[in-house]
Amino acid sequence: MVIRHRSYAVxxxxxxxxxxxxVALGAGPxxxxxxxxxxxxxxxxxxQPAYPDVFAASVATSLYHDGLxxxxxxxxxxxxxxxxxxxxxxxxxxxxxxxxxxxxxxDAQLVDPEQKSLVDTLGIQLARQVHGATDQDATTYxxxxxxxxxxxxxxxxxxxxxxxxxIAVRQSLAAAHLLAVPxxxxxxxPLVLVVLGGPMDQAIADGLLSGLAHSARGVVAxxxxxxxxxxxxxxxxxxxxxTTVDGSExxxxxxxxxxxxxxxxxxxxGAYGASGSDGAVPLG
Length: 284
Prior knowledge:
The protein is of the alpha/beta class. 43% of the residues lie in helices and 12% in strands. The protein has a domain at 69-234 and 244-273. Strand 5 (218-223), helix 8 (228-235) and strand 6 (243-246) form a beta-alpha-beta unit. Helix 4 (116-129) crosses helix 5 (140-152), helix 5 packs across helix 6 (164-175) and helix 5 packs parallel to helix 7.
C-alpha cells in the first residue's frame, strides 16, 4: 500500500509543479485561447495642455487690457500657415479689443524664386502706376512688399477706405494670382499681423516683411518655435522695424504676438517669443 501510494504521489507532484510553473510564466495550459473573458478596455487619457499654455490663456485678457480697442488689424498668411493657428490668432486679436479688417493670403507664386521674373515685372508696372508709393531703389521683393503694404496697410490711426491706388494694386495682385484679397473691399489697417508658414528663401522673406512695414503703423510676424526664416529676419536686421514672435503653436506664443501688436502702436521692432533675443513677451 505504501509503495502504491508513493507511485501516485510523485507524478501528481510533477503535474502540480508544471501547472504552477505554467501559470507563473504564462506558458502553461492555462494560457490557452479557450477563455471567453473579454480583455479589459484600454483607457486612453487625453493629453492635458501644458501649464504655460493654460496660464497664458487664463491671463491673456488681463494682459491685453483692451490694448487693441477699436484698432483695425489686417491678417496676412504666407504659404503653409497653419489654419488652426490663424483661427486662434483671430480670436486673440478680438480678445484684445481689435477689429479684424480682413485676411489676405499670399499665393505660393509670390514667394517662389522661379517666379521672380513675374513678380519683378508686375512690381515695376504697379510702382509706375502708383507713383511715389514705393522706393525708387527698392529690389524685387522689397518693392512687392511695399505694394502689398499699399494694398493692406496705412500709417494712420484708423482704417482708411481704399482709394484708386489701393484698388488698382489689389486688383493687379489678385489677377496675377499673387494675393487673395477678401471680398467687400475692406479698409486698409494700421496694424498688420503676418503668419509665416513653410520654408522660404530668406531674401524673399526679408524683402516682403521690410516692404510691408513701409506703409504700416506696425507689423508683427509670427511663426512656430525654431522657425529659421523668423530667426533670419533678426539676423538680417528686419526686426529693427518689424516685431517677430516665435512659438505660434502655443497659447503663450499667440498671446505674445498680440501683445506685440499692442506694442507696435507706439514702438516698432524687436524679436520675442520662445527664442526671442529681446525677451519672451513684448511689453511696454
